[in-house]
Amino acid sequence: MKKRLVLIQVMLLLSAGCQNNYLQQQACTTKINYSIKNGFSANKPESRIYVLPAQVNTGYEQYGKVASGSLAKVLDGSGNGFKVLSFFDFANKLNETSMHQEYSEMMDFYQKYGLFKKTDLEKIGRSLGIDYFIIPSMLDIKRWNENRVSAVGIKFINTQKICIVAAMEIWSADGYNVFGLSCDVTIADERIKENPISIEQAFEQAWLAAIKQFNLE
Questions:
Q1: Highest averaged pLDDT of the listed ranges 28-32, 110-114, 147-151
Q2: pLDDT tens digits for 68-98?
Q3: Helix (H) or strand (E) holding 180
Q4: Domains detected in the chain
Q5: Of 14, 35, 154, 172, whose Cβ has the fewest other Cβ atoms within 10 Å?
């Protein structure tokens, strides 16, 4: 399948924002790396999905839970009929089925080779009633400030910027890697008073742009 590049430029100026003297700009790029035809259907009724712990580079470990949690939240609210298992739901199911060892071995194999074994996915998917496993990755994150005086030379403007580069893979419970996508989002928030952009907000914008690509063939 040919790679597709989707560039979404969004400029938001809210009435409430006008009253508080701020302007927020967002730029998001998503790129489908591969998609197996009929391998993943966003319209399949009540697909049960588990968002695995995010893979992060050394030094970014503190963002792993945020990346996975925000993706699960976005999927759950997408309106596609997904049944998204939270980490706690998944942990409870592991306790019920006593498959902690199998799950640990599955994740260890992925961290070592960047792949899941077909037999592991089939066993865990069948035992826990999961249709798809999604594993997000956080590749890079940067945050910085820019301060300047406004055009009229009176007000001091603070611009908060954050850039996130992330990716995801979707694996079916029958052992196939069916979808891969990368995305990056940059948010610039300009206002008179400092108000840091949340990491959660940036991740949610990246994942919102990403899941819009699920229905592309």
A1: 110-114
A2: 999 999 998 888 788 898 777 888 888 888 8
A3: strand 177-191
A4: 4-211 (3.40.50)
A5: 154
